[in-house]
Amino acid sequence: MDLDACISELKLNSQKEYEEYVSVLEKHREILACEIDANPKNIRAASLLAMVHFELRESTKVSIRCLKDAYKKNYGELSDDELAMLATNLAYFYIEEYSYTGNVVRNLLKKAIQANSPFAETYFALAILYYGDHKYNEALPLFKKACDMSVQFRY
């Protein structure tokens, strides 16, 4: 399965009205589910499937379960990048579903950072949590790292 082509098609169609976009999301939900059944070690596919569930406005719990299943099936075999991807995505879904910003989310993001996360979102999310706790000295270097990694984030 060519995940880059899948991502490109989803991005291209995401500009459409939601009603038109649903059929594309449903198509890719099925394709990704089949890919994961055939290759449970495909962490990118699991992460993308979690996003598709979310975009289809299914319960965020479905997205969380998708990522947790991928983690459980591949525990001990994950590369650092795969662990960082799962941990970062799980943290974002916990924040989205439960507005939860407690230790579970912080620990997921810290675990991703310990794995040298290549994702600016990891550092940005933890910085936001520290900032919300008025821990500015901890937040600032994380904001800077996120900014250095991505043009999306700016001071």
Describe the structure.
With 155 residues, this protein is mostly helical. It is built from eight helices and no strands. Helix 6 packs antiparallel against helix 7.
Keywords for this entry:
globular, single chain, 155 residues, mainly alpha
List the helices and strands and how they pair.
Layout: H1 3-13, H2 18-38, H3 43-55, H4 60-74, H5 80-98, H6 103-114, H7 120-132, H8 136-149
Helix pairs in contact: 1-2, 2-3, 3-4, 4-5, 5-6, 6-7, 7-8
Overall average residue pLDDT = 91
Number of strands: 0
Biggest sheet overview: none
Helix percentage:
over 70%
Summarize the helix and strand pattern as letters. HHHHHHHH
Query: Strand percentage, roughly?
Result: under 5%
Task: Give a quick precis of the structure.
The chain is 76% helix and 0% strand. The protein has 155 residues and is mostly helical.
